[in-house]
Write a structure and sequence with these properties.
Helices cover 56% and strands 16% of the residues. It is of the alpha+beta class. The strands form four sheets. The protein has a five-stranded antiparallel sheet with strand order 4-3-7-6-5. It has a five-stranded mixed sheet with strand order 9-11-12-14-13.
Length: 491
């Protein structure tokens, strides 16, 4: 049996059980209400019988039953209504006389509260009182007070549904249930079941196709989707699955991309770290082998090369860790307000010495009345340093590098320009990728993470870095830092 069919029959069985339970509940409620309806009719029809008894005779004389006079009337009433049981009560509710068929009386007194309620409401309410012949049971009754010289001397208490009547009524009622009620119940049950099964089939008719789509997706067909034809009345389930499948497929593509980039990262890191390590190892081996035959001048030269390679290696490892933290969102910017011109002057002063060593002109241009910016000062400094390092690397001797700050509507614009060899249009769309190196600049060595780190830093400041360049036309990187007023206006 197919899974969709199994579910259909399980739901059908559950529906059948529910209908049976509802049917039994219906029988119970019908029995209870019908019995109450019968008793209430009986009480309404014969509710004044006790009053007639009191009017026709004086059942109590000085609080004592007048047996000879009252029993004849009691028997006459029982002839008229054989289901009656007649009792005389004293003012405290004790039974002092009775006329009942057959069985003896079990109770010696009855509760007066229902009797008083009945008398006060003149028999218009449905009230149940104690059944003296059956302890703990309640039945409909008629009651009337007995007065002598305007003094209450007792009550006439008549049970309207005797034990014999109850037995006959139950027998007839059971016969009615078996003959008509049960028949109607089962007809209704079968009709409701048939209609219910039809609607279950109608609702779940597309379930098998949806299950097949689920199975295809489970087995690796991530393009599997529930088509419009299969949705039917289960549109919410189908749309939810399609949305989930889209999300999972997107996550899988992203994970595959991350895995591909991870492999590239490992390959590039291995290659870039191997070069300085090989240089360090080679010169150390030379020093160990020829330490007695090398002149001091050459030893110093070799040690300088080792030191330079060590610095490059340390810089590569530092950049790798920095980029990894940025990419994993482990670095949270600690933003504050500061004057961008002050930071630019400090950075320009540091790089002035490096520029002079390469005979490069280092210029700082700052527009007046710049607004305060709201950013992480250490991360912004790191981004500008990476861009200046990049400019120094590619700018030829005698060239020029400019750090320019200008005012714009959202804050401060930062621009770093050089007159180096430039970047081709083909490479400009890839220069911010990690470990990407311009095809025209293979001679320049580096970890390939500098510009990728800059891009991440600018992105966590809700901005974008752009490049403008051309072959033999120099390169300019520029980005914007939001002002304090702009950030406050967005909050």
């Amino acid at each position: 049996m197919k899974e969709g069919q199994k579910l259909y029959w399980k739901i059908s069985l559950a529906f059948l059980c529910m209908m049976i339970i509802l049917g039994l509940g219906y029988i119970f409620i019908t029995t209870y209400t019908s019995n109450r309806y019968f008793q209430e009719i009986n009480q309404r029809l014969y509710g004044d019988i006790a009053s007639h008894l009191v009017k026709e005779t004086q059942p109590l004389v000085n609080g004592v039953p007048d047996t000879a006079a009252t029993h004849d009337i009691m028997h006459s009433m029982m002839v008229i209504n054989p289901s009656s049981e007649v009792y005389l009560l004293n003012p405290e509710g004790k039974i002092i006389d009775f006329v009942v068929p057959g069985k003896t009386v079990e109770l010696k007194e009855v509760d007066l509260h229902p009797i008083k309620d009945f008398i006060a409401d003149k028999g218009q309410s449905y009230v149940l009182g104690d059944d003296p012949r059956n302890k703990g049971e309640k039945k409909v009754f008629s009651a009337a007070p007995v007065y002598e010289d305007e003094k209450l001397t007792g009550y006439a208490y008549i049970i309207l549904a005797s034990e014999k009547q109850t037995e006959i009524a139950n027998s007839l009622f059971n016969s009615y249930i078996l003959r008509s009620g049960a028949f109607l119940f089962f007809i209704t049950l079968l009709g409701a079941l048939g209609i219910g099964l039809f609607f279950l089939w109608y609702i779940t008719r597309n379930l098998q196709r949806i299950i097949n789509t689920f199975r295809r997706f489970k087995e690796g067909d991530y393009s599997a989707r529930v088509d419009d034809k299969s949705k039917g009345d289960m549109v919410i389930l189908a749309e939810t699955f399609n949305d989930m499948a889209d999300t999972i497929e997107s996550n899988i593509d992203e994970l595959q991309s991350v895995e591909r980039l991870r492999r590239e990262l490992i390959a590039n890191v291995s290659h870039d770290l191997r070069t300085p390590l090989a240089i360090i190892q080679g010169y150390i081996e030379t020093l160990l082998i020829k330490k007695d035959n090398l002149a001091e001048e050459k030893k110093t030269k070799y040690m300088d090369i080792i030191m330079d390679s060590t610095k490059k290696l340390s810089n590569m490892v530092g950049q790798l860790f920095e980029y990894s933290k940025l990419e994993a969102n482990e670095i949270k910017p600690e933003k504050e307000t500061f004057q961008m011109s002050d930071l630019a002057q400090d950075i320009a002063a540091k790089y002035q010495i490096l520029a002079e060593k390469k005979k490069i002109n280092m210029n700082l241009k700052v527009e007046e009345n710049l607004p305060l910016v709201f950013a992480d000062i250490s991360l912004v400094e790191r981004a500008i340093q990476n861009l200046l390092d990049n400019a120094l690397k590619f700018t030829p001797d005698g060239g020029t590098i400019q750090l320019i700050l200008n005012n714009n509507k959202n804050g401060v614009g930062v621009r770093i320009e050089d007159n180096g060899p430039g970047i081709s249009q083909e490479d400009q769309s890839h220069i911010f990728e990690r470990y990407h190196k311009s095809m025209g600049n293979k001679k320049n060595k580096g970890a390939g993470l500098g510009l990728a780190i800059v891009k991440k830093i600018i992105e966590i400041h809700d901005s974008t870095i752009k490049v403008s360049s051309g072959i033999n036309k120099g390169t300019a990187f520029y980005f914007n830092l939001h002002s304090q007023q702009y950030v406050l206006s967005k909050v």
